[in-house]
Design brief:
elongated, mainly alpha, 2 domains, abc type-2 transporter like fold, four-stranded mixed beta sheet
């Protein structure tokens, strides 16, 4: 590989990128916009679920139950209704996601020491909200029932401080407050970088062909490997700047702590970037037009979102899709970036993913260099 020819090609590619001011501005603005949009929208935290209340008892006991729901961060008492038909209308229209019906004999049954039942209606059209609402309502009901039992025993002068037979003390590591942003933002680093790098470089060779400048490359003594490396280098620099922007945005805007080694994260990010940039160039050597190149890039990027573990756990997928996910570099990088950022793990824990990303990089770069033919199609 001739260093002089390589530097000349890198300079030529850099000048071409710098002259395209609109694309260059988009390259740096788009990651921040995607981080903001996906960072705030792609969250699994369910809070302030609209609750419609039909309190037919209107007693101090029913108000205590309602206070339990208000205190919890999961529900927001948005409507007070006077009939079940009104409650149904609110849930049917989507204005209320849940409904609580307290019967007229609620307080009298409690006063008599008998079980009292309340109805909790959940709109199951959105499983994520419905599952959270069901779990939260169950826990609130159990907590209120326990409190009532303690009150009754205390009123009878009976001891209530006896220890339970089994006590489970849960402890959450790495993300004690279960903030979804801490899990999603590191993954967005990989997702945004993949979309950006693959689409950018997918048009590289095609653009040369469409502009008629491919002939200038053909008559040069450049080898296929030199062409690939020369075209990759400027985009690697741009992608590195975008990586730092996204990481800084995650820390400053979403408060995501980087618990692990930042140099290790940047080093492995470079490995991931090179793989995706080379993949974009491989697509560029296959596509005939820039439109085809973009379509090929989207055809690769979109399935990666679902099969990499970005949204759905890989372990929950059918076995066939799990096997396909092994061929997606983003799957391994998500494990790397989440492990370093959240768990502060190092090479000792991430070596399988590092080996996989290295194999991808070598295979894709070799395929891109081999695919390029120094001749006109």
């Amino acid at each position: 590989m001739n260093l002089t020819r390589l530097l000349a090609l890198m300079r030529k590619e850099g000048l071409q990128i710098m002259r395209d001011r609109r694309t260059l501005a988009l390259v740096f603005i788009m990651p921040i916009m995607q981080l903001l949009l996906l960072g705030y929208a792609a969250t699994s935290d369910v809070r302030n679920i609209p609750l419609a209340v039909l309190d037919q008892d209107k007693s101090p006991a029913s108000r205590k139950l309602l206070d339990s729901f208000r205190t919890a961060d999961y529900f927001r008492q948005a409507f007070d209704v006077t009939s079940e038909d009104e409650l149904r209308t609110l849930i049917d229209s989507g204005h209320a996601r849940t409904g609580l019906i307290i019967p007229p004999d609620y307080s009298s049954r409690l006063a008599a020491g008998r079980p009292a039942q309340v109805a909790f209606i959940i709109d199951g059209s959105d499983p994520a909200i419905a599952g959270t609402a069901l779990a939260a309502a169950t826990l609130i009901g159990q907590a209120r029932a326990t409190a009532l039992t303690v009150e009754r025993l205390a009123a009878r002068g009976m001891a209530v401080a006896a220890a339970p037979a089994i006590e489970v003390r849960a402890r959450v590591w790495y993300n004690p407050d279960l903030i979804s942003a801490y899990y999603m933002i590191p993954a967005l680093v990989g997702l945004i970088l993949q979309f950006l790098t693959v689409i950018l470089t997918a048009t590289a060779i095609v653009r040369e062909r469409e502009r008629g400048t491919i002939e200038q490359l053909i008559v040069t003594p450049l080898t296929g490997a030199e062409l690939i490396v020369g075209k990759l280098a400027p985009y690697v620099l741009i992608a590195f700047i975008d990586t730092l922007l996204i990481l800084a945005g995650g820390v400053l805007l979403f408060g995501v702590p980087i618990n692990g080694s930042l140099p290790l994260l940047l080093l492995l990010s470079a490995l991931f970037l090179v793989t995706n940039l080379a993949l974009g160039l491989l697509i560029s050597t296959v596509a005939g037009t820039q439109q085809e190149a973009i379509i090929f890039a989207l055809f690769y990027n979109l399935p990666s979102i679902f099969l990499s573990g970005f949204i759905y756990p890989v372990a929950a997928m059918p076995r066939a899709l799990q096997l396909i996910s092994y061929a997606i570099p983003l799957r391994y990088f998500l494990i790397v970036v989440r492990g370093i950022v959240l768990k502060a793990v190092g090479v000792a824990q991430l070596w399988p993913e590092i080996i996989a990303l290295s194999i991808f990089a070598v295979v894709v770069i070799t395929a891109a260099a081999t695919r390029f033919q120094k001749r006109l199609d």
